[in-house]
Amino acid sequence: MTHNKTLNPLTDEKLKAAFGAMAHPRDFRPFVPKEKAPASLNTSRRDRTDEVMETALIRETHDLWGALMAEPYKGITTDGTLCPPGRVLQPNGAPRAAMEEAAKALLAVLRPEIAAKIRFAADAPEWRRWHNMPVQWHRDGFGLEEMNEAERAATHALLAASLSRAGYAHLLELMEINRFSGALIGREKYLNENCYQIGLFGEPGERIWGFQIYGHHLCLACRLIGDTYVLSPTFLAAEPSVVDEGRFAGTDAFVENEDAALALLRGLDPELRRKAVTLNSILSADVPEGRRHWADSLHLGGAFQDNRVIPLEGVSASHFRPEDKKRLMALFETFFLLLPEGPKASRLAEIEAHLDETWLTWMGGYDDWAPFYFRLHSPVVLAEFDHHQAVFLTNAEPARFHIHTLTRIPEGGDYGMDLLSAI
Predict the structure, then answer these.
(1) Is the pTM of this model over 0.85?
(2) What is the pLDDT of residues 224-256, one digit of tens each?
(3) Element (H, E) at 220
(4) How far apart are alpha carbons 228 and 74 in whole angstroms?
(5) Is the pLDDT of residue 275 over 60?
(6) Where are the domains of the chain?
(7) Which of 251, 77, 111 is nearest to 177 (CA)?
(8) Within 10 Å of residue 41's Cβ, how many Cβ atoms?
(9) What is the pLDDT averaged over residues 52-56?
(10) What single DSSP character describes residue 362?
(11) How far apart are CA 45 and CA 107, in angstroms?
């Protein structure tokens, strides 16, 4: 694991103040609450949602996100003007037969009252309803924790059929981390391996259909458009990213993303690195007012940001040396572990074809301890990585054991929207 490597000592006074109690950068143990949550907080997501909806912040967020979802879909742009890169509908090795078989098996075991809550038309606006919060708003439909054993097993079979073997294993890791997090703080009914919603869009076997799963630290939109497989947006996260006890002990999520990112930035020519780093620290006192969002932190492409304007910042990869571009592609690959072999190869080829149009933005340090955020942005991909402050633990500063990652297809490509006109 990364935290077993030889580390340079903490020397920066701000970092020592924030992380001096830690044995390594992913040591979350000093920030586990000394007392577990009272029983009044260890309620189901649906019950807890009814409670928090009484608070102004959650009510305002619910209403704002609802308004954003109601806007006509356009796509993420760099200046408000849609500039589609001309993506074409073509076979990319989609595991269509296996996905259709698994989806039909799920429909066969769903109780009618549940099917009525999770089935939508292929083009339903609910594609855009996903979010990362553990709450379960009424518009969120039905949760896996409310399913019976057969329904949950069939849901997992659909996920396994739709993802790579390593990708499905990663999803199980993140679900287990969610259960581990709930156990750490005494809120197992609220945070567990089943606190996600599933949605089925269209009829399996038709030209256009797909599914969506979302909840705390896991959001995926998977769509088949003809023989083209699209997985976007994706949101994968963990707090803490390390599991140090139980049957999943040894889990160290997102370490590949972090290592590849540091290798890229550290390997750049100093002048290029200077251009890439737009903010030297993401500790609380060093982030400009308004830049950090209470739910998304430094992410710009989070939930309900389908139409956000995100300018290009940092440094263009057109200036990278061949070895830098090789490291950049290695970093991109860490974001697409979930994709089956064919769609993954196709996606990476598409990204590489636009590599000279890719921009790297970095905020924070790049030593062994400093938390950081980075964004990779081109006409065909938006990838973000962010170290977060505590939500359920107690660290006041962003730390390397709380990680959020996100991928999107800008310029109208999320949910495969730009490909639908070719059907």
Answers:
(1) yes
(2) 999 999 999 999 999 999 999 998 999 999 999
(3) strand 218-225
(4) 21
(5) yes
(6) 39-76+95-218
(7) 251
(8) 14
(9) 88
(10) E
(11) 24
